[in-house]
């Protein structure tokens, strides 16, 4: 009778192969977790900046004004006011009873005031200086008027941890820009 048994060499080879398979699976798991974490932080920052831009666009779409008084005030490169007629029924010809809402960047905070500066809500605490997009050697302002004067350009840059330096994997930065067209909000 010829019985087949496992030799010591075969046993060692099986253990080594099993170890290689386990190490490979562990390396893939660690890499995928790292990739997921870096993607997740970038998505969080992107969602926050997108929310702010949508918030501004929504309120800008409700702006009231005329062609010569469009209902927007660009007080500085970090401060924008939008006039809204919150009366029921609306009083389009009378701007004296309208409310000015305000958006402002203060340090790493981007804030919103629904009543012109009395009460404030922080929309984000991850805002950092905008990069130089147009190549003029200066960072882009948060709020600027287009060369034609018919649009307010809003540029926001946020970083996962604004106090730490930029790292595309662990501390990503996102920049988004939108335009608010002033003419489409007038009653003329």
Key terms for this structure?
alpha+beta; elongated; five-stranded antiparallel β-sheet
SS-based class: alpha+beta
What proportion of the residues form beta strands (DSSP E)? 25-35%
What's the helix-strand series? Answer: HEEEEEEEEE
Numbering strands along the chain, what is their spatial order in the largest sheet?
A: 1-2-3-4-5
Give the N-terminus to C-terminus distance in angstroms: 105 Å
Characterize the overall form: elongated
Total number of strands: 9
Largest sheet, if any?
A: 5 strands, antiparallel
Mean pLDDT: 88
Question: How much helicity do the residues have?
Answer: 25-40%
Structure annotation, total helices = 1
Estimated radius of gyration: 28 Å
Low-confidence stretches: 184-188
Oligomer: single chain
Detail the topology: elements first, then pairings.
Elements: H1 8-61, E1 72-76, E2 79-84, E3 99-106, E4 109-113, E5 121-124, E6 127-128, E7 143-145, E8 151-159, E9 173-181
Antiparallel strand pairs: 1-2, 2-3, 3-4, 4-5, 6-8, 7-8, 8-9
Description of the molecule:
There is one protein chain. The protein has a domain at 31-69 and 124-185. It is 29% helix and 27% strand. The protein is built from 1 helix and 9 strands. The strands form 2 sheets. A 5-stranded antiparallel β-sheet has the order 1-2-3-4-5, with helices on one face. Strands 6, 7, 8 and 9 form a 4-stranded antiparallel β-sheet that branches. A hairpin with a 5-residue loop joins β7 and β8. The longest helix has 54 residues, at 8-61. The model is unreliable at 184-188 (pLDDT under 50).
């Amino acid at each position: 009778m010829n019985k087949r048994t496992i030799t010591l060499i075969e046993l060692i080879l099986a253990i080594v192969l099993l170890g290689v398979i386990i190490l490979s699976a562990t390396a893939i798991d660690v890499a995928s977790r790292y990739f997921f974490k870096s993607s997740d932080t970038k998505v969080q920052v992107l969602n926050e900046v997108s929310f702010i831009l949508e918030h501004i666009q929504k309120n800008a779409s409700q702006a009231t004004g005329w062609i010569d008084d469009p209902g927007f005030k660009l007080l500085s490169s970090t401060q924008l006011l939008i006039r809204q007629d919150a009366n029921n029924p609306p009083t389009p010809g009378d701007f004296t009873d309208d409310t000015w809402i305000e958006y402002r960047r203060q340090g790493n905070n981007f804030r919103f005031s629904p009543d012109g500066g009395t009460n404030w809500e922080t929309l984000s605490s991850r805002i950092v200086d905008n990069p130089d997009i147009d190549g003029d050697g200066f960072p882009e302002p948060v709020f600027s008027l287009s060369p034609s004067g018919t649009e307010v350009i809003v540029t926001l840059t946020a970083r996962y941890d604004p106090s730490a330096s930029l790292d595309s994997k662990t501390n990503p930065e996102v920049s988004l820009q939108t335009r608010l067209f002033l003419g489409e909000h007038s009653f003329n």
